[in-house]
Input
Amino acid sequence: MKQAVIALVCAFAASAALAQAPAAAPAVDMPKPQCAPVPEYPGRLAMTVESKRKVFERDMKNYETCMKAFLEERKAVIKANENGANAAIEGYNAVMKKIREEQEAARQ
Output
């Protein structure tokens, strides 16, 4: 009988612990860079033709510029998210500090 009670208590405790687990963070759709056309190396022989080499070099430069702009945009979003998270942490800490101080004052 005692074993059944212990098993029941353990099962209840485990289910309660699982129920209190924090929810997983929602999936976030990350934007993809819209840098087209993606340059392709035309080959060693094609690079000897000046017009094809210039087109390739132009495409490479445009792609590089586009990717750098995309990365700078993403860095700005990351920084904004970081600042928002830090502000939330500071707010939480301020509330907890105030509550602790009020509890200490109530004890005296």
User: Anything to note?
Assistant: The CA atoms of residues 79 and 85 lie 10 Å apart. The chain is about 70% helix and 0% strand. Residues 31-107 form one domain. The chain has one domain: 31-107.
